[in-house]
Amino acid sequence: MSSQPTGKTDFESNQKTSRTRYDKYALPCVAEFFGTALFVFTGCASVIENCSGVGRLQPALAHGVALSISVAITAGVSGGHMNPAVTLGVTLAGGLDIILLVPYWAAQFCGALVGAGLAKAVSSHEHFVNASGGAFSSIADNGQVGRAVVAEIVMTFYLVLTVCMSAINRQSRTSLAPFCIGLTVSVGILGAGGVSGGCLNPARALGPAVVANYWAYHWVYWVGPLVAAVLVGIVLRTLLGDPKIRLTFRKP
């Protein structure tokens, strides 16, 4: 998801044309698997071992920094998504071949399961149980569910828009994309953590839910982020995208 140069050298062009099917289709999925596994491990471990009384600050920083690193090291291979909602939004914006959508999702979900499993393996049983394995459990059945869905939509919209504008949109993409994306996740956790937990990522929700067998209001963390991804795709295709992305207001 790093910014791309406007011109390509002969060496780069030859590399592109000589890529194998593994490089084109499998390697990006491998990168998504490892990036997601490391991100989810760090995120779950930070929640499970958050016993110092710092509230949401520790998980917010851990998730944000971990995602920034994962994005930075995988951007040149897969685009550095680590999030099914991001992959959907990027695909709708034309930044990913649609044939890779489902393989990316599969890699991200598998990575999330491995990451959550590793977090359980290194955590004390007491802390793991108390934190529900890092699964999201802050929603109470007191009318908060609707607000949680809205919070997930708004903050995931912010995240997916940041990804697309900083890494795909030609008029605004920047080499600071990994930093911007990780910081947006931290902001999302700090801003929406008290309402929904600040998940913004179906893979991040699924991994610990499976490992801890904790499914309370799990659907919220699918509906909110995926709706947000569709909204970002619509906004970029109609209003905010560069002329290559936008389908409206283009020169005849």
Topology, please?
Blueprint: H1 10-17, H2 21-48, H3 57-78, H4 84-92, H5 101-122, H6 125-130, H7 144-167, H8 177-192, H9 202-212, H10 220-240
GO molecular function, one term: water channel activity
Protein name: Aquaporin-8-like
Family: Belongs to the MIP/aquaporin (TC 1.A.8) family.
Question: How would you describe what is shown here?
Answer:
- This protein has 252 residues and is mostly helical.
- It has a single domain (10-240), classed as Up-down Bundle (Glycerol uptake facilitator protein).
- It has 10 helices and no strands.
- Helix 2 (21-48) packs across helix 9 (202-212), helix 3 (57-78) packs antiparallel against helix 8 (177-192) and helix 4 packs parallel to helix 10 (220-240).
- The radius of gyration is 18 Å and the shape is globular.
Key features of this structure:
10 helices; 66% helix; Glycerol uptake facilitator protein; disordered N terminus
Count of individual beta strands: 0
Would you tell me which CATH topology applies? Glycerol uptake facilitator protein
Percent in helix: 55-70%
CATH superfamily: Glycerol uptake facilitator protein
SS-derived structural category: mainly alpha
Q: What number is the mean pLDDT?
A: 90
CATH architecture: Up-down Bundle
Number of helices in the DSSP assignment: 10
Number of structural units classed as domains: 1
Largest sheet composition: none
Low-confidence stretches: 1-15
In the CATH hierarchy, what is the class? Answer: Mainly Alpha
Question: N-to-C terminal Cα separation, in Å?
Answer: 30 Å
Provide the succession of SSEs: HHHHHHHHHH
Overall geometry: globular
Strand content: under 5%
The gyration radius over C-alpha positions equals 18 Å
Keywords: Membrane, Repeat, Transmembrane, Transmembrane helix, Transport
Subcellular location: Endomembrane system
GO cellular component, one term: plasma membrane
Membrane topology: Multi-pass membrane protein
